[in-house]
Fold:
Amino acid sequence: MALSGTQNQAAWETTAPYALFGDNNGDFNPWTPAVGNYTLNGTPYTGPNGAGTAGNPLRITFTVTNTAGAKVAAESLPLTEQGRGWRFFPNPSSGVIRIELEPNHTLPFTVDIMDIMGRSLLHERKESLEAVMVNLHDFLPGIYILTIRSKTGVVSRKLIKQ
Structure:
């Protein structure tokens, strides 16, 4: 995986947890990002250290700002380049999040939530476009990954539980 932008970092990881700045027995090494724009690229390989066949790469772009106390009201991004989208809110959340999909979204789809170690905490298959309510009360405060999968693509976003 490689981070480019205001700061740059590259790492090869062969076992979980996959940590750009390394870890000590699953305890992630700290990183304090500088304000600016970043792109994180990750490509899975069938062999260790980038050997073997490359899988589908994932690219995440993000911006670090210095707005202490600011909250994200909603994530709203296209699921595919054709604009089939979804959003979830509130984020951060201390209770229940709501996931909404555009009317032209492909069915069926799945909703997954994983912790930062990659452990699956929720997996639900949905056959309708009704809003999905997810109760986070039993989740510990922290950062999670929310993923929506359908025939048209896979999109993952950061979910913060307060």
User: Anything to note?
Assistant: The longest strand covers residues 142-150. The mean pLDDT is 81.
